[in-house]
């Protein structure tokens, strides 16, 4: 998994899923900023950088490491459960 994009510039399943989950975290972060409190919103926005492929490539070039896929997967499950289960945003969704 050297590059996020294959030799013929076709996106891989990992880069597509990274974009989807990263954008979902950005949306949750923006909703938290406006509906709940700015602090969890900013945390969600910063955590979305772990999933977005351009930020992932920047971290790899700048710092020489990237977050392993297993850590991303576990972090995604924890964030999903936290958003829907414990956060105020999850309570707001339940009331709709």
Mean pLDDT: 82
| Shape, per Cα inertia axes | elongated
Total count of strands: 0
Order of helices and strands: HHHHH
Supply the helix-strand structural class: mainly alpha
Oligomer: single chain
Strand content: under 5%
User: Distance between termini?
Assistant: 42 Å
The portion of residues assigned to helices is: over 70%
Features:
single chain; mainly alpha; 5 helices; 0% strand; elongated
Task: Offer a concise description of the structure.
The chain is elongated, with a radius of gyration of 15 Å. The N and C termini lie far apart (42 Å).
Can you describe what's shown?
The protein is mainly alpha-helical. The protein contains 5 helices and no strands. It has helices at residues 13-35, 38-51, 53-63, 69-85, 88-95. Helix 1 runs antiparallel to helix 2 and helix 4 packs across helix 5 (88-95). The radius of gyration is 15 Å and the shape is elongated.
What's the helix and strand layout?
Blueprint: H1 13-35, H2 38-51, H3 53-63, H4 69-85, H5 88-95
Helix pairs in contact: 1-2, 4-5
